[in-house]
């Protein structure tokens, strides 16, 4: 049976109370994701990659590959500069990664030629790997519209894209500029149904790091033409509640992981904990999703 690729889990990164990387906790998290969605995006935004050293990113990639295998890991190697991204790419590929993702360069602006040069250098460093672009203009400061991206994808041999922020709701527009086999993922995990209807491959979901079941169940139901509309509505409601509670919040996702019995650890970046009421709601949802009252 083919491994599902509709729901990709964007993993958090656990740190010890002193701020050190907790590799054992990461392994436990990755093992859980490997047993559920089977698709791991490592060291991305949800994984606090700006706060990780290159060595730490490589350790996380190696650990993920050990837990989920080459077909189950997308290694994020994006950086502010091509030199660093290429160095990370070579190290990730040497470790066994065959699917890599790169956020567009950030902090300084980049024009179309500079953006093409950035991805071309990564492509040359990993000619046999699947290369995914990662568009997140609200974080990178760089907007790449669908037409521009279609040209970039063709010139740099890209295999897919993750659309986050504003582009996450524009799957159809990006899809129209790309070949049929190109994989378009949205970071808006609440809108899985819309993503698939627009021809997208699926969603990259931070919420699934704690609660994969709602997204996997909805994905399976959407792929089944015989699913009763009432069941679809109920499954979408659970996804809505999950995303509504966890949202784009690393702190809430980590609290949910802890409620599931996963070692979430602390954070290095400016990540706040949920307030008491929200924490209680997250804990109740954990019990509902896992089928363990009071979990």
Automatic annotation (TrEMBL):
Could you tell me which InterPro entries the record lists for this protein? Answer: Aldolase_TIM (IPR013785), DapA-like (IPR002220)
Q: What GO molecular functions are on record for this protein? A: 4-hydroxy-tetrahydrodipicolinate synthase activity
Q: Which UniProt keywords apply?
A: Lyase
Q: Which CDD domains match?
A: DHDPS-like
Where are the catalytic residues? 134 (proton donor/acceptor), 162 (schiff-base intermediate with substrate)
- Please list the residues that bind pyruvate: 46, 204
Span-the-membrane segments of this chain are none
Q: Which family does it belong to?
A: Belongs to the DapA family.
Give the protein name, as stated in the record: Dihydrodipicolinate synthase
Q: Which organism is it from?
A: Streptomyces himastatinicus ATCC 53653
């Amino acid at each position: 049976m083919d491994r599902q690729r509709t729901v990709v889990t964007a993993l958090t990164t656990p740190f010890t109370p002193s701020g050190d990387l907790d590799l054992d906790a990461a392994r436990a998290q990755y093992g859980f994701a490997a047993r559920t969605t089977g698709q791991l995006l490592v060291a991305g935004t949800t994984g606090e990659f700006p706060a990780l050293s290159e060595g730490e990113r490589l350790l996380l990639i190696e650990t993920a590959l050990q837990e989920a295998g080459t077909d189950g890991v997308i290694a994020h190697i994006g950086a502010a500069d091509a030199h660093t991204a290429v160095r990370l790419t070579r190290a990730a590929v040497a470790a066994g990664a065959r699917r890599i993702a790169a956020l567009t360069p950030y902090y300084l602006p980049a024009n179309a030629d500079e953006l093409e040069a950035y991805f071309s250098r990564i492509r040359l460093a990993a000619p046999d790997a699947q290369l995914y672009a990662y568009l997140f203009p609200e974080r990178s400061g760089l907007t790449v519209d669908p037409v521009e991206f279609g040209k970039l994808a063709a010139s740099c041999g890209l295999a897919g894209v993750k659309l986050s922020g504003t582009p996450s709701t524009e799957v159809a527009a990006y899809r129209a500029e790309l070949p049929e086999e190109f994989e378009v993922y949205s970071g808006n995990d609440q809108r899985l149904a819309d993503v698939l209807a627009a021809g997208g491959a699926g969603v990259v979901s931070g919420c699934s790091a704690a609660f994969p079941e709602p997204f996997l169940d909805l994905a399976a139901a959407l792929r089944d033409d015989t699913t009763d509309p009432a069941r679809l509505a109920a499954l979408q409601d659970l996804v809505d509640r999950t995303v509504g509670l966890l949202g784009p919040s690393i702190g809430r996702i980590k609290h949910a992981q802890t409620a599931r019995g996963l070692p979430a650890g602390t954070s290095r970046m400016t990540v706040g904990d949920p307030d008491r009421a929200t924490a209680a709601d997250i804990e109740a949802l954990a019990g509902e999703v896992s089928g363990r009252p009071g979990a």
